[in-house]
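Late entry, written up from scratch paper. The run itself happened at the end of the previous shift, but nothing got recorded in the book at the time, so transcribing now.
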Amino acid sequence: MAAIYSGIHLKLKSAKTSWEDKIKLAHFAWISHQCFLPNKEQVLLDWVSHALVSYYNKKLELEDEIVEKLWTYLDNILHSRKLQNLLKDGKTINLSFLIAQVINERISESCVQKSHGNVGTVLSCCRGILSTPPLSIIYTAKCELMVNLLSKLSWLACQWLTSEDAVTSQLFDVLQLTFAQYLLIQRQQINPNRVFGQVTSHLFQPCLLLRHLLMARVWTPADDGRVRQHLSREIRNQVEAVLQAGIFQPELLSSYREELLTEREPQDKKKRALKTILMPVNTVLSKLRDASFCEPTLQVIIVANSVPLLYKLFLDSYCKAENHMVCFHMFTRLFGCLRISHLQEDLWQEMLSPVDWSTELLAVEQLLNLVLSKDIYNVAADRIRHKGTQFQFYRKLAEMLVNHSQASIPAWFRCLKALISLNHLIVEPDLDDLVASAWIDAEVSEPRTKKPQETLINAMFQTYTKLRQFPKLFEEVLSVICRPAADELRLPVLSAGLTEKLRECLLELPPNQILDILFLILEKCQTLIIPDVKDDSDMALKLLSVSSVLHNFLFNMKSLDNVTPLPVVLRTQSLLDKMQREVIQPLLDLLKDHWAEENKPGLWLEKISDSALLLVYTWVELDTLFSINCSKYVSRLAEAAGGVTDCAAESWDFSALLPGVDRQCWKRVVRLSSNFCSASKYCLELLMLQKIKKILMQTSVQTEADLHTLQHAAAFILHSGRSSMSMEESEPWNGNISAINALTYPAAHWYLVVSNLTILVPHLSLKDVEYVADVLLKILSSTKAPGVSADQDSFITAEKASKALLHSTFLPEIKVLHCAFISRVIQQCSSVLCSATQGVADQPIQQLSADNIPWHEEVLSSCKMVGMVEAQAEKNQSKDEAFICWTTMEKIAQRILLLTRAGSTITLEEDQIESFLHLLEIISALKLDSLFPSDHTRCFLLLLSLVANTRANVSCSKLLSLKFLITCFRLLTCLQTGRSVNSVFKVFHASDALEAVVTALFAASKCFADVLTTPDWAEFLQVIQTFLECFLHMIVEKRQSLKLNLEKFTFFLASCKPYADADRGKPWNTAVNQLLLVPLTTLCHVLTLYLQQQPEKKQQLTEMLSALLEPTVLQTGTAIQLCLKNLTKDQPLPLAFIPSVTTLLKADLSYMSTGGFMKMEGEQENPKDPGKYREYSHTELYQKFYTRILRELTSAGGHLQFLHSALQFLTVFCSVTDLYPGEETVLTVFHAVKNLLAGPGTTVQVIQDLEMQLTELMTQLVESCTTEEFCVMMRLVLQGLEVSNIWKQNPKEVLSAVTLIKLLLSCPLTGEKEKAFWFTSPQIITALVVMLKAAPSFLNSFNRLVVSVMHEGRQKGDRGSTDEFGVVLKCAHLVERMYSHIAAKTEEFTVFSVFIVAQYVIELQKVTLHPAVKKHLTEGMYHILDLCIERDIKFLNASLQMGVREVFKELYNDYTHYHKTKKHGEKKYTA
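Output as recorded:
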């Protein structure tokens, strides 16, 4: 022993031993159990520490490689499990304080050298020390070392974050750990001044820099994710904690108070006081202003980012009511650190860049928000006690912000909003400049800036509304508008958002205040604008702005009504008179005098036209509205119209209401204004619309003149924007009339037309209606829709208006337009087809779009259209034209069938398919169930022709081709639900339509071999099946030549090409044969369904359906066998086959139960042997399929689609016991299901998705099995519930067994099977005790057992056998024990206790329990009620239904009286 000890010790100390050998020897000594050395661990730790300290103290010369190995050796020791175990066992191991100094110096050295590569091992050692409490004492015992370490790590982290190197987690892990350790030490310090000095001297600057860099860094994928997502946030929080606990300690409040408040006292007193206090504010601010710790540009940003943080920390520490002035003065001192503060005193001349402004204003905003949130500024207290000190400061701040407008920066608006929130008087002296710079003259277009601007203006609205000084605000607004404009592109005064806010304010204001504003607007127009508007574009723009404000006020204020005071009515009347007389009339005079300049109008004339007609429309609309709603109001429009001797309709050129303006003059105004694609043209359309509404409202019987006027007005509105609708460029419209220009006019015009179609269309000619349909389709088909940014979501576009119309419920009600639009869609389809090939005149789609066929005579004859004279001769003519229409469609139908049989198709390229898809999407948006018969038939023929007479080019995407066919068949299916569905059979035999579809599908499917395994192919088969099913249902239900059509279709399927190909030995085409199964299976399904539904009385129909079903079953079986024959040995069953075989088996069974029986009944008429009808036609097929399904079931995993189909097949198969192959029985299937549920891919979610199919199968198995087989099933279930499955970590077996119990409880059990289940129930309940971890699943199954116990344990007249009741009683006792066990598992089941109680009382209300059973269940339920808290009881009383609530109350009263009292009594005497 001694030899070993002395040898190692000497060799480690010997100068002759190389350092390489020393390190190897030390490593061996640490890990080896054969090396016995007293206090070995401490000796080795001291040795390596001494070596490192000696080297760095220049007492030892070592190579860099050796030094690195020494650090690695130290790191290995610090992180070794051996060291941790020794310390855990209580062994004392110390580390030298000198090693802490060395570590700090190495980190500092790495920071100076800007090299991160060599510091990794040192950081690892540091982490090992700090994370081991007995060793971390070298830092925690000497706070200076910890502060120094934290400072060096922070500087190193800052250096790393500013470099381009990828950030790794090691440094930040150590930094986070160091912060945590320092915070613990910091809280234990008893000298606040010392802590303040440490933080400000060593940590303040690196912490602020670190916090900024962590927030500002643009993270890259190469950076460590933990640093970016977690550590950076954690370290920022720790930085704030260090600063708050170090700088703003509660003990320092007196120092802050003395320093901040003494500054406001006389100078001599201030000097005396400052000699005795700490001066924390100056210390912190001097460190903050110090530019030496980073680059000057970065330091400015850090100051701006840190000022709000420091103020927040200060307020969190000291903000109380008595300290509000201290908090305010701290605010001013921190604000003084910002460069923006010097602008107040004009001490700082250098211009700030937009980035600098943004940063500084963001800091000011945060400071002001902190003042607001902490309620530091009390207006009354500041004025009375402090002579307005705070107010004066905020006033200067507001003045500076207004004088240095920064309307492109969102924070500028938010700062002003905060100042208004503090006190509106702060900004009121600068209200005019504020309105100008922040609103009227502000060029704000970006969404991020527009939102805070509107928030600021809304704050002004709200403030002056509450103060009832709204007129004062708008007096300033009008003054600003009337100033000279900076440019001609002034934005509208009131945006959509501001108009909404204005409306809210106007509803709160007294009417007279609103009228004051309106009279003020008129006065400004009359005195300041109109006299100088001629030839002055600037004045014209001001006029439009003021007119827009007037329009918005009048349209958004509350309307006059019968409860409005008479003075308000009279004053409003006076306002409209003044508006017409002193504003509208002079403007119209100007237009009248310059109408000849229509070819070369100036901007001023255009804006005058916009203003004049906007005000005319506003005047007319309000006059009409007030006259309808207020009986005290006298309509000037009605007076003027009544005084005209001409017919009423002619007076609606509006000249009658304008003195000095005759009809000719009005026409000149209209002619001039119509040249501008601006607000004036839109207002003319609105006036014409108002004319239509007025005539429709006032004239009960329309004269010829009325009709002529209505037609003229409707045509004027439509054609007014006709030239603009062909423009390629357009922009979204914000809904503001004054904002309409050449680019936004198309959207505004089309929105007006679409919104008023219901009153326009009856007065339009057929050509005009067709024009509307044409424009609608062009807009919907346009691929060059104007881009709408995020802030323009609420804007109006022609595309939005068109889509809204297309999806609306009233488009089908506008019958003429609906029909015209369908015709345009069909014509567009024809155009796409023409682009595919030449010579398509004989194509069905081309014929469907012919212009010379009266497609809609049935509609036009029932509607009044302009230019149609109602006469008997025309009625007779319409009948002839309708005959022509249907004859044409019949020829087209035959043409489709002829081309299909001949295999003649048109080849489509991808772009044409895309075009068709877009048009089909438009068709799908129409209400296809409400089409007129002719349109219904045309759409059917169009879709059928697209399916049957077109083909995708072989180079086209197969998935795109499938999508095209899927869309066509979906629309064909939709047509089957339409009210005009029978109209198709006027032109087509049902069997011919089916033949065309199936023939076309066989031909098209040959190119789909590559996509047979894709979801798109499965979807394709599904939509075809759905269409065929709907079509066949319709044939049967509507009795459309039922026997003839189905016989022809059956014969056609029998003669299909796949059979012939198979007979001739041609290559097998999987796609074609999968498609063939679809119509065969669908026909089987439909015939089976109707055969089962027929009552016995309808023997003739039953015979016919049975006769049709027999050949269909045989054909389907043959087709399936051909398909299966061509599958390879290991190839899984195609999904499409399984439902087909299931349907075939159902059809076979149905035929056996009906057709076979009838054959036996009619044996004399039919000498055939009836025995053959008792045999299944494809027994061998079903058995092979059954065997294959069972084989693939266990490996299906989570393949839901396969499992759905497979379980459905097994359910039908198991209903016939004779079909089982060989020795197999019900148990074979049950075992397969059990294995499936226990399989690796069967999750809880999969089981939930399959619950319905599993329940149906289990019900069928229970019904078909014998009692002995049922007992075997129960034994298999119990095997799954054995505890050994838990021990063997086999939870799937348990899940399978629990699921099977749940399924069995859903099955109806009778007789011996019911007894067998009940005799097994006690074992099941006992076994479920070990399954508590899956609480929801367990409770689900257990609740079903409880319900069964309650059902069997109810009082009965004849109790039956004693053995049965004994089992029920035993089950009830076990349920009680289970409830007791559940209550003991409080953590797992507390959340479910309410639901357990609710389920129990709901069932209890339905039965009357036997007293012995009830006793056990009630005692068990008491244990569950122990888990319920008062809130749970209230919830149950509130949520349970009336009868159940009474049952619960009785149970809870018994619980409180008997159980709860007893329980508390026992607790009272429990030690």
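The longest strand covers residues 906-908.
(Scratch paper discarded after transcription.)
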